Known about the structure:
By secondary structure, the protein is of the alpha+beta class. Among the domains are: about 5-60, Phosphatidylinositol 3-kinase Catalytic Subunit, Chain A, domain 1 (Ubiquitin-like (UB roll), Roll), CATH 3.10.20; about 70-95 and about 95-170, Acyl-CoA Binding Protein (Up-down Bundle); about 180-300, Roll (PH-domain like); about 475-540, no CATH class. The strands form 4 sheets. Strands 4-5-6-7-13 form a 5-stranded antiparallel β-sheet. Strands 2-1-3 form a 3-stranded antiparallel β-sheet. The chain has a 3-stranded antiparallel β-sheet with strand order 8-9-10, covered by helices on one side. The chain contains 16 helices and 13 strands. The relative contact order is 0.10. About 45% of the residues lie in helices and about 10% in strands. Helix 3 (about 75-90) crosses helix 6 (about 155-170) and helix 9 crosses helix 11 (about 405-415).
Amino acid sequence: LQRDAKGQYLFDLLCHHLNLLEKDYFGIRFVDPDKQRHWLEFTKSVVKQMRAQPPFTMCFRVKFYPTDPAALKEEITRYLVFLQIKRDLYHGRLLCKTSDAALLAAYILQAEIGDYDPGKHPEGYSSKFQFFPKHSEKLERKIAEIHKSELSGQTPATSELNFLRKAQTLETYGVDPHPCKDVSGNAAFLAFTPFGFVVLQGNKRVHFIKWNEVTKMKFEGKTFYLYVSQKEEKKIVLTYFAPTPEACKHLWKCGIENQAFYKLEKSSQVRTVSSSNLFFKGSRFRYSGRVAKEVMESSAKIKREPPEIHRAGLVPSRSCPSITHGPRLSSVPRTRRRAVHISIMEGLESLRDSAHSTPVRSASHGDAFAAPGRSSRAESSERVAVIADENYSPADSVLPTPVAEHSLELMLLSRQANGAPCSIEEEKESEAGTPAAAEAEELGGELRALCPGAGGLGAAQAEQVNKFVLSVLRLLLVTVGLLFVLLLLLIILTESDLDTAFFRDIRQTPEFEQFHYQYFCPLRRWFACKVRAVVNLLIDT
């Protein structure tokens, strides 16, 4: 890769290798040395975006989930989206009820191994696959039952299409979770979907805001602000706190890109967005790709022979490998699987729900902005939707690529060698003493100190006022500095003997001569007279 090669060059090269034309839904993701995820920006140099040393590790991911994945033009695109959603299911991002989970897993089984064959698939064959972060024998029996009785005869392409149709109906479809905390210190996950902005807490969706209701997004430090304009001219400002300023900036950029992609009609309508109202402060960012409507119009014009799909070798299945790749974690007992899974939770472990002993509220702080007179029960019943049987706690590893099968047992052994627990019970007992839990408790205590109880909203408003005052002071300082520079330049022009071409040209203009003789010289004589009067007064006294 050339040093000045742009991200677009690398992305086009990859899409050409995959024989992919509907490429606007995808992107390249990488992780910096501080474990912060980023999307590769196509208009900038690849090398300059990397803070690590080569070789660089990146991942090909779905960046903008299709509104209707079953309506994609080519099968190769549907297959790649299928792989992404299957990965989301394994990492706990695509959360759903048990009945839906069993059907999705059965579709994966049918696409991976084909029709049920008693000779090849013995009792308990579905337990050889890891579809979800947590399994149960009852769920595995349900998966096998659906696979045996309902999906016989479906080709891999048909099973994948049915999988996409089912996944698209779930409320966590397209969710790329960003761990945050609200003003009360409760853990939450923010996400941008094809349909709008989503806030998840516990096993409930506490906020869903359509894209046409989002008027503005900005961030300052670790604080993310979402401005919403709903019906009856009702305006709401949602405030959340990210773990780090870098994570907050990444959240803001993702929001800007998703809103532009799904909301706008044409890419020519895209504008550069600033994270601050003042031109000399904050970050500036502009989405550089096509929007969803343009992508769909372009896809409709594709006319070529469908490319051949090598399902076994194109993208090896890691979240749920095929029989040819061997069962996942086949040598690890069932009681150890969840402990192995916990060992790879590096990205969001510090913000897991288990780190907070208090129950998660059913409605977020946004309800405080509701018009008076509406009861909180009515508000929560309208806006809170249960999305699954369990809490939303995605195990989104920050590792650039999924962990290989043989690495999981090594990670488990390394945890045992360091005295780390390998069972769920031991994990829970030691969780309170881990650095991640201590960090989460420290962060939670810091936020609670800033926003204690019902006074959290007032503290947030006071913080906004302080930031506004600082912005005004900064503006005054810049103005004074500019005036000082102009005054210094004026003195040089009128009083110095510098005879450079630049100064000579300015001095010879009629405007400068008029200013010099009619305004500056009288002002200088008046100022000199006043100085002499003050000096004489001091001498006399």
